[in-house]
Amino acid sequence: MSAPTLQVLNDRQDAIRLGGEWTIDHADAIADLLSNAPPTLKYLDARQVEEIDSLGVMQLRRFVMRRKLELDDVLWHREHSELAAVIDEVADERPKIRKEIGLSAALSRLGKGVTRVLTEFRAGLGFFGEVLVKFGRTVFQPGRLRFTSVVSHMESTGLDAVPLVALLCFMVGAVVAFLGANVLKDFGAEIYVVELVNVSFLREFGVLLSAILLAGRTASSYTASLGSMVNREEVDAIRTLGLDPIEVLVLPRILAIVLTLPMLAFIADLAGLLGGLVVGAYSLDIPPQQYLSRMHDTIESRHFWVGMSKAPIFALVIGTIGCLEGLTVKGTTTSLGEHTTSAVVQSISTVIVIDALMAMFYMTLDV
After folding, report:
1. One digit per residue, pLDDT tens: the chain, 367 residues?
2. N or C: which end of the chain has fewer CB within 10 A?
3. Phi and psi (nearest 5°) for 13?
4. Which residues pair with 49 in a beta bridge?
5. 235: which DSSP letter?
6. Whole-angstrom Cα distance, residue 149 to residue 155?
7. DSSP string across 237-251
8. What is the spatial distance between Cα 204 and Cα 209, in angstroms, rounded to a whole number?
9. Torsion angle, alpha carbons of 70, 71, 74, 75, to 10
10. Measured between alpha carbons, how far is 312 from 145 in angstroms, rounded to an integer?
11. Between the CA of residue 21 and those of 26, 51, 145, what are the distances in Å?
């Protein structure tokens, strides 16, 4: 068993040749040799090393990093280069995170955030365009659509969400009626609670609450299921079989949510109106017959259609974001968790922004 050696190759002392065995049995000797290396060192020739293990590679790597040299400046024996490459990939030499403060750092973070948002928006727009192209092809070739998958996703997306949507909207309708009555009773206008609940739920709350629930429930489900398939290389297997992942995995999910969200929004409207009716009957002394009669006299179908017109748009946004985030998972559980969180945040934020824009649009048109 030969000891490790270190030999200076020229008078400038900028190159050394290593020899012997650089293993764990000679850890102390290796540390002493490297500590006595010339300060002007620029190149290391390790081709004469007889044997080396992971400890030897790590000690050389740390030495190179301390001297602020490049890892490419080390010449390895061809039998050792593969081990050095593997160690370099898994080495945990993370620099200490410095917290930058000041105006320039804040502007830098702002710029990076804006760039990231624009990149995600462009990726989402491109993915949505690809989905539309595949959907158009499916329209002319209906046999390509997997109806069984669509129905299965409709069940998990819509039918299983009905109890939660109905309960939530019933409670929100009751709260809106109760709070509205507290304000209107000062003016002796408690009966106008009927119009308040009707308009707020038919135009906004019904479809918006349903969309937010699906954004948290369905978008995360789409991302988690597709991301798990990416991790298990099932998506690659689908491509290997000559199938299109967009047609097989994405289109059924998006069609399912587009078909179910309007139905959920309708159920949400009914539950919200029922919540207002219950509060009116038991807390505001408005008999159910009178409440229903005023609802019949004052309700307008245009409010209902305004709310329903938002449902397909919200569904497309939620489905597209959920599927896109799932297909961009990098293959680790950490990436899966990050993309699932991102899908929920993006879906809810986008739905609220679109709802605000559409509300202003309809108000401008006086609809």
Report:
1. 678 888 888 776 778 888 888 888 888 888 888 888 888 777 788 888 888 888 888 888 888 888 877 777 788 887 888 788 777 776 655 555 566 677 888 888 889 889 988 888 888 888 889 888 988 888 888 888 888 989 999 998 888 899 999 999 999 999 999 888 888 887 778 888 888 899 999 999 999 999 999 998 899 999 999 999 988 889 889 888 888 889 889 999 999 999 999 999 999 999 999 999 998 888 887 888 888 888 888 888 899 999 999 999 999 999 999 999 999 888 778 888 889 999 999 999 999 999 999 999 998 888 7
2. N
3. 55, 40
4. 20
5. H
6. 10
7. HHHHTT--HIIIIIH
8. 8
9. -120
10. 19
11. 8, 5, 64
In this structure, which amino acid lies at residue 77? H
Which candidate, 155, 340, 112, places its Cα nearest to that of 252? Answer: 155
Question: Helix, strand or coil for residue 37?
Answer: coil
pTM for this entry: 0.70
- What distance in Å separates the CA atoms of residue 235 and residue 75, rounded to the nearest whole number? 40
Residue type, 72: D
